[in-house]
Design a protein that fits this description.
alpha/beta
Length: about 220
């Protein structure tokens, strides 16, 4: 379903790009960023004006809130290109699921990206909490509790697992959980209207690595 000018959601969303084409476009943007040849597309006044009454993003990026992980920059995107949702440690809750379902059901976005990164503070804090048994205060505890299954899975696999291993595992579990917990997303993937990918981002290189995929990424 696509929102009209007044924001009403009244028709099923669709996109001209397939999941495979959206994936290629995202990869190309990241490569430009890595190569320091970013084109900074869709950032002028005409683009801004064209988006006043509608939006048609080709990807939804669910990433960590870390200040070093600005999705539009690392994928060389502009206005209207990506629907972005961010939480510390890309932790899922009902509002996150609702936001992602909106992007699929109402905007017809063909690609869902779960984006983690090395040196993630939320995963590091969870690793320390698991090791010491000392939980953080406030609502930070909720973040840690939601990341703990990923940390424990890594430790069960390898008792000497590093934070980087736990980050990759957390991306994989998060991406899989989106499909498991959301019938809307699962249905879109089953109909090959949407694909879900999990990526880890290298802070020093600016490069993303594919660690999970569900859906067709080939033309």
């Amino acid at each position: 379903m696509r929102g009209g000018k007044d924001g009403n959601m009244d028709s099923l969303g669709s996109h001209s790009l397939t999941p495979a084409e959206a994936w290629v476009k995202l990869q190309e943007g990241n490569q430009r960023f890595v190569d320091s040849t970013s084109s900074h597309p869709n950032q002028d006044a005409s683009r801004r004006t064209s988006l006043v009454s509608r939006q048609n993003p080709f990807a939804v990026i669910f990433g960590c809130s870390d200040s070093r992980l600005a999705a539009e920059i690392i994928f060389d995107l502009g206005l209207g290109d990506a629907f972005v949702v961010r939480t510390a440690g890309h932790v899922i809750d009902n509002t996150v699921l609702g936001s992602l379902e909106y992007s699929v059901e109402y905007l017809g976005v063909p690609l869902i990206v779960v984006l983690g990164h090395d040196s993630c503070g939320a995963v590091t804090a969870t690793k320390e909490a698991v090791a010491t048994g000392a939980m953080p205060v406030g609502f930070i505890r909720d973040l840690v509790e939601r990341i703990t299954p990923s940390v424990l899975t890594s430790l069960r696999r390898d008792s000497h697992a590093e934070v980087s291993d736990m980050i990759e595992e957390h991306v994989k579990q998060t991406a899989a959980r989106l499909v498991e917990n959301s019938p809307i997303i699962a249905n879109a993937v089953a109909r090959q209207k949407t694909a879900v990918v999990g990526l880890t981002y290298r802070l020093d290189e600016g490069r993303t690595d594919l660690v999970y995929s569900n859906g067709s990424l080939t033309s």
